[in-house]
Prior knowledge:
Distance between the termini: 21 Å
Strand content: 15-25%
CATH class of the largest domain: Alpha Beta
Structural class: alpha+beta
Strand order of the largest sheet: 8-7-18-19-20-17-21
CATH superfamily of the largest domain: NAD(P)-binding Rossmann-like Domain
Bound molecules: flavin-adenine dinucleotide, uridine-5'-diphosphate
Shape: globular
CATH architecture of the largest domain: 3-Layer(aba) Sandwich
Amino acid sequence: MYDYIIVGSGFAGATAANILADRHGKKVLIIEKRSHIGGNCYDENDEHGILIHKYGPHIFHTDSEKVYEYLSKFTQWYDYSHEVVAYVDEDFIPVPFNLNTLKIAFPNDAEVLREKLVDIYGYGKKVPILELKNNDDEDIRKIADYVYENIFLRYTMKQWGKTPEEIDPAVTGRVPVLISDDNRYFQDTYQGMPLDGYTKIFENMLLNNENIDIMLDTDCKEVLKFTDKGIMYNNELFNGRVIFTGPLDELFDNRFGRLPYRTLNFVNEYLDKDSFQPKAVVNYTVSEDYTRITEYKKLTGQEAKGTSIMKEYPMTYTGEEGQIPYYAIINEDNLAIYNKYLNILSKYNNFYLLGRLAEYKYYNIDAIVLKSMELVEELEN
Length: 381
Ligand code: FAD
Ligand code: UDP
């Protein structure tokens, strides 16, 4: 009956389902464990009528015209450029560290330091903190030490339970030192927030499409079985294709051990005041147990009485009921475990892995939408 079974309805699964059903006329079944579509990008009104992101703040940004145009079929955009500040020494300083932050951190010799940074790296360049730290020049070292101590060290310890040197350098490289006066967190060509929220995008992608059926509140393991004969759906051999966007270790009952992840505990508060903090996101890079606070109406542009904020407390993912694996911890040991799971799959030639969990990768929204579009193109052409 179905050409495709897609496990998970985040951006990976939803993009694939939408294109397969709409452009290729395929019959698609989506199986989703949660009671809603949208995966981690799901948003909803809280009890005070303020739109919040249930699984942490999501800002759309991309350099890909293809992705921007595709998603623009499902939403209009609220023109928003994301800016973040860190709370340091009772002050709010722009992050990524840039030439404006330099003025606050080194008020007495900012001009000299600015010239040096521009001379060495070039205006507009992005320099990962671990690279900046390797520079032998005394002044550059002074800046690097400041950035490391005040922006990266404690935030990273909270987020990952490890120092910046102990994690994949690509992770801290996501927030490089910026040799410019640009206070934006992202420099992508397109950035913004969906005007009516993310959930609406998913509804427009998936609902009211006669080629798409959605089964909510269902762990795929209840209906899919991996046997020597092949993949069974409801105890019958399934000859279509299966696209899986969940965690691979849990699909196979952790038989080679758990893949390590970090999870987050989100704590929401409503405050009876117009404004709580200067920007939508404030990072706590030297104090507190939480990493950051998001004030949602500053992110979405919503006008509301009072304001809703969210604190994020990172911790180890243990797999206990209700926890969600948010961040793959990418290193050699963990990739070796992942590869053991991949080996099981060589038996199934109609099974495809897609997404931040299934591929054990650090994907932003735009990257996973693009990857999903490419997978469908590959399968259908
Ligand atoms: P998910 O959204 O996780 O979707 C996977 C779906 O599969 C889930 O709905 C899950 O319930 C379902 N599932 C899993 N296992 C099973 C199973 N066994 N059976 C049935 N269903 C199952 N990206 C940005 O571009 N900008 C941002 O600002 C940004 N902020 C982020 C903030 C946080 C806190 C996090 C964690 C990520 C952020 N991201 C951001 C990344 C973004 O969330 C991901 O790129 C995107 O969600 C990936 O989509 P996905 O479909 O791969 O995964
Ligand atoms: N980071 C940091 N301090 C900050 C911002 C980021 O130490 O103020 C580090 C931290 O290790 C984090 C990584 O840079 O995990 C990537 O940050 P990003 O904002 O991209 O993380 P995400 O939005 O994916 O949680």
